[in-house]
Structure formats: structure tokens, C-alpha cells
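Researcher: Re-running this chain for the archive, since the previous output was lost when a drive failed. Same request as before.
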Amino acid sequence: MKLMEEAVAFENASMSNMSTSDRVAASREAKRLILALNEIFKETKDSEIMDAMKRLTEKKKKIEKRLKGRPDSM
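Model: Regenerated C-alpha cells:
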């Protein structure tokens, strides 16, 4: 299962010292992995795949939070 290996590698990758373009690319990669795993999950209903999708979603949210930055107070 190559896709699960990619997901685990993405989870374990360090996200420190990333440029903005690196964060955008990482967010898109996370989205691609989540959607691909979802297609497999629809057929198999494997809880391990669901857990992987949840972990990827959490990491994607953290990346996107950093991309959006802090809200300006006016």
C-alpha cells in the first residue's frame, strides 16, 4: 500500500523552517493524500485508513493556520 507509506512519510516530515511556498505545497500534498485515502476508505471501511486521514487533517490544519497568520486587530 504505497499511499499509506506516503501518508506516514508526510506525517513524520519536519515542518519547521518552511517558506510560505513550502507550506502551500505541503498543504496541497496533504489534501491530495487525504482525498486519495478517502477513496480507498469508501471501499474498504478500514479504521486504520480513517485514523491516518484524521492525523493528516490535523497536520494540514496546523499548516494552514500558519499560512493565514494572526488576525490584525483594528
